[in-house]
Amino acid sequence: MLKSLPSHHPKPGISLIPPILILLGLLPGPAAASPQPAPCHGAPAALAEDSSFPPPAAHDRGIDVLSYDLVLDLDPQERRLTGEVAIGMVALVEGLTRVHLDLVDELTCLAIVQGGRPAVFTHGGDSLLVDLAAPLSTTRPETLRVRYEGRPPAHGSFRAGLMFRRHSAGTNGIPEDDMPIIANVSETWSAHSWWPCKDHPHDKARVSLTASVPDTLSVVSNGTLEQMDTPEPGRRRYRWREAYPLPTYLVSLAASDYVSWQTDCPVRDGLGGATTIDLGFHVFPFDREDAQVDFAVTCDAMAFLTELLGPYPFAGEKYDQVEIKWGGAMEHPTASSMPTYMFGGTGALDVLVVHEMAHQWFGNSLTPAAWHDIWLNEGFARYCEALWLEHAEGPAAYADFMRTLGPGHHPDLFVGDGRLGDPDPILPNLLVYDKGAWLLHSLRLLLGDDAFFRLLLSYANDPALVHGHATSADFQAHAEAIAGRGLERFFHAWLQTEMVPRLGVSVARNGTQAEITLQQLQDPWLPMAVPVVLHDAAGDARHVLVLDQRQRRFTLEAQTAVDAVSVDPDGMVLMLPADAPAPALDVQGPWPNPASGDGDGVRFAIRLLETADLEVRLHDARGRLVLRTRTGPLEATGPQGPAHSWTWEMPADGSLASGVYWLEFRGLGRRAVRKLTLLR
Ligand SMILES: [Zn+2]
């Protein structure tokens, strides 16, 4: 997904102002006042804003969904649908008698049938609890047919779900063309706002989608169009089927009065194969001319990504880009939804085409096992934007792009405090995108180009992950296999802490030798690579110093007397100046994490620049304040002094249930937020 306007790399002469104005008219709800990503300053506040939107139950519900067949009848005039979803499933535990599905309360469940027999169900709290007519077995798949109807609500932190809109209002307002647009954005938890399902990314299933619409509209969805017919005068019915398994958030429907065209795109892939990919384009009639220009990059981008990442994951199908009216783009498999604001006839948003296409590998084929690993989608897609710019425009464009993502540009980049993996409501925030891209860039510097690009290919084509699920640990394992050494310290620092590298540098020149001492001043330290240039009479010599400990001295030899030494001359290492002020409050931990709650509590390491008695607030996963306590007076430690070890004793009465909690430390005008998982 790429939400809101990309803030970087506009082509010269392209003003961002008109699209911003357009966007203001487009986004409903609270987002309308603030089209740019909201700064994120801590978990509890952000979660509290979202507390009206509890995520569905965990994925482990005793069933494995095998297939969804959606049959939908859509009425754009009334903004209603009636539908039947056939859900094929097996039990994960023998003899299961109750199934828990997700469906918002705004929709009405009319009936559930199992093998011709009606099943008893209750519907409330956005859950459908189905008492099965016969117990479900682990080996014999059964089908539940759920009939339902209603008006899908604006849902989730994006106020999206299935959206019924028209051309006339807002963007591209052309009164004489007031045709409907029906389109969905379901990431992260909004699939169940328009169809009953087990709404969790961990359970992929085969999906078919049949949609009936007024015959002035056409429907685009995932996979292959199998059939189109006329169920009754004035209506047209489209039957799409996706051959590869999908998680619920990637099931797509887009309908409007599209004009469509198709091109063949011959590509070679990074594993040595060659094929032709069917590219499709579906846009509103008045955007056709502009879209020809704005989509012109598509085949070049596909050729680039297949070379970089290996075969297009949806072999035998197509890659469509489908215009929708929403404030962002969404990487639906084989049918990316592209926002109407990208069409200006300038080709200024090539990176948006690349971003959504890169998700076909990262997210759509390799799907995060849980939303905690969402950076595996967005960090990779964002980094592919940088790699595209390097390919298309050269190293300077790559460097410019990466620098725009750095901490000076996005003040929230390192405020996440271990939240890199927490998707909702963090997805609107750019943290997972930009810090994820910097992780990959830093890994590339550390491993070298040859190893790094082999890593991308090996990870994206791992048979154990392709069209399945991936975790950060999977990617780390691939990186370690390619590097031939452990990278735990690197991944821990990037993914689990707020560290921003700060480097102390000292240089001594002695004739043709330069002695360079690098010292990492931040906690924790991590393996990092630092480019260095030696300047002498013979010219400039580039080196990459691998700093695999906190401090190290390097001796470099020049051809003639060393005139000068430049450390990171191009600004390609993400770091703050060595004299940047240390944070007034720094909290690391907790340990252990996850915690059982019956031991000796959990421990934190705290550094502060002044003596303080910190307030500690515990919030649950929905942002509710559960309890408050204080650390008691803690003496100033200074930025490098030994940290205080402070232990939080959990309530002995067992009142805290298993789950995710946030501990917020307040004092010295700062907040530090740490995440704790409690497993009782
Ligand atoms: Zn994305």
Please provide a written account of the structure.
The protein has 680 residues and is α+β, with helices and mostly antiparallel strands. It has four domains: 2-49 and 363-496, Neutral Protease, domain 2; 60-256, Immunoglobulin-like (Sandwich); 503-567, Sandwich (Immunoglobulin-like); 585-678, Sandwich (Immunoglobulin-like). Helix content is 18%, strand content 38%. The protein is built from eleven helices and 36 strands. The strands form ten sheets. An eight-stranded mixed sheet has the order 6-5-9-3-2-12-15-14, with no helix packed on it. A four-stranded antiparallel sheet has the order 10-11-16-13, with no helix packed on it. A four-stranded mixed sheet has the order 17-18-19-21, with helices on one face. A hairpin with a 4-residue loop joins strand 2 and strand 3 (80-91). Helix 6 packs antiparallel against helix 7, helix 6 packs across helix 8 and helix 9 packs across helix 10 (472-483). The longest helix has 19 residues, at 375-393. It is globular and about 90 Å long. It starts with a strand and ends with a strand. Residues 1-2, 331, 355, 359, 378, 381 line the site of zinc ion (ZN).
